[in-house]
Amino acid sequence: MADEPLRIKRLLIIGLLTGAVSGAGAALFFKGVELGSEIILGKLFGYHFPVEGESVSEAALWSLPDTIWLILPILLAGAFLSALIVWKFAPETSGHGTDAALKTYHGDGKIRWRVPFVKAVSAIITISTGGSAGCEGPAAQISAGFGSILSDVFKFNERERKIAIAVGLGAGVGAIFKAPLGGALLAAEVLYLRDMKYDVLIPALIASLTGYGIFGLFFGFNPLFSTISMEWSAVQLPLFVVLGFIAAGFGVLYIKSFYGTKRLFDRAAERWKIPSFLKPVIGAGIMGFIIIVLSYISPETLAAGVGCLGTGYGFVQLALFNMLPFAVLLILPFAKILFTSLTIGSGASGGVFAPGLSIGAFAGGALGMGVHLLFPEVVPAAAVPVFVVVGMIALFGGVSHAPFAILLMVVEMTANISVIIPAGLAVLVSCLLMKNHTIFKQQRISQTDMRVAGDLEK
């Protein structure tokens, strides 16, 4: 007991140090994605893309690119350069970062010092050249890597090292999302499929708040998404139950498509002796070809195609403003699943977090808009954005098996606590239906059952 105050002090130090480094790292990474996207997608491709956090008047100025075929060489060049960097310097940074961080946490807790930097550069290239991937997974691996580096520098013991990795993961995601409370809870909830690691909560909260504070100095403290007036009523509650079923269905489709594509690329590479750094190039080529084909079908299919470039958050913002036609909302969930599978499933460096939220948002928006068109007295226009928000929570809360963290996180991202009741109902249904399906195969079952979640499907 005499060592208890010392142990608490060390946990506080771990939280402060990891949070500070994670916040600074997340800020640099996010700025890299922002600048890269503006230069490549904006100026080179000529795409005036919408951005999360814009006002209604700013978002209304978005426009489709004039020369759609340019997306093919941009995607191919980005995939090749990113994959070559990963292959040459740190192969463990391929794919989505959160699973890699979980694998390290449940393993020896050691990450090579180069990993955060290679992950940052490769993910910036992937996202800013249009690859369908998110910032949060890379931020998780980057911040977990910084936690491991701090553990090496300050000679943390094994338990402290793992805490540093877990709180780094939460701090990185919380900073990027501007959701420090949700990020802290995620650090404890995402480690296990059916359990929670309570002893990381306090240092995770300190780290996440510190990281958010540093990130906010550069990018402000406004919520990630801008929202207009959102209303829901008790008569809509059965529809949110239905949304829970829809979210679970799209969640299973997302997981099956993603890992099925990964297996397909791995088997093809083994059979045809394809170098690992060429797999993402093939995936990017297929994605670019599909977008070009969509451009010849209709303006709606073209909009859905370009709406899947990058994180997809810009089109989530449009959905929150009721600026997307019903036809586009119907196509977007399927297109985002396909393009994310082709991007990250082929081995490109990026995250599955943002695409998962986007898929849920589009599915929810499609349900809300569809019912609004048929029965406007049941779902008025002001209620459609609620379905977008609830869809985000229900789908990714289910596929990640971290419903409480995602619920809190999205409430912080939209600064709207009124959605908790319908969101809680939908995510409960989604989680019950998901059973053992998870997007994070390196989650352990529980603290007593140390098998990884991926073993349950073998």
Short description:
By secondary structure, the chain is mainly alpha-helical. The protein has helices at residues 4-44, 56-59, 71-89, 97-106, 115-128, 136-153, 158-177, 180-189, 201-219, 237-272, 279-295, 299-307, 313-320, 326-344, 353-374, 384-400, 403-414, 420-434, and strands spanning 95-96, 349-350. The chain is globular.
SSE topology string: HHHEHHHHHHHHHHHEHHHH
> How large is the share of residues in beta strands?
under 5%
How many helix segments?
A: 18
Structural class computed from helices and strand pairing:
mainly alpha
* Proportion of helical residues: 55-70%
Overall 3D form: globular
Task: Report, as a whole number of angstroms, the end-to-end distance.
Answer: 45 Å
What about the largest sheet? 2 strands, parallel
Given as residue ranges, the uncertain stretches (5+ residues, pLDDT < 50) are none
Largest sheet strand order = 1-2
- According to DSSP, the number of beta strands is 2
Rg result: 21 Å
Mean pLDDT: 93
Descriptive account of the structure:
This protein has a two-stranded parallel ribbon with strand order 1-2. The protein is globular. By secondary structure, the protein is mainly α. The protein has helices at 4-44, 56-59, 71-89, 97-106, 115-128, 136-153, 158-177, 180-189, 201-219, 237-272, 279-295, 299-307, 313-320, 326-344, 353-374, 384-400, 403-414, 420-434, and strands spanning 95-96, 349-350. It contains 18 helices and two strands. The termini are far apart.
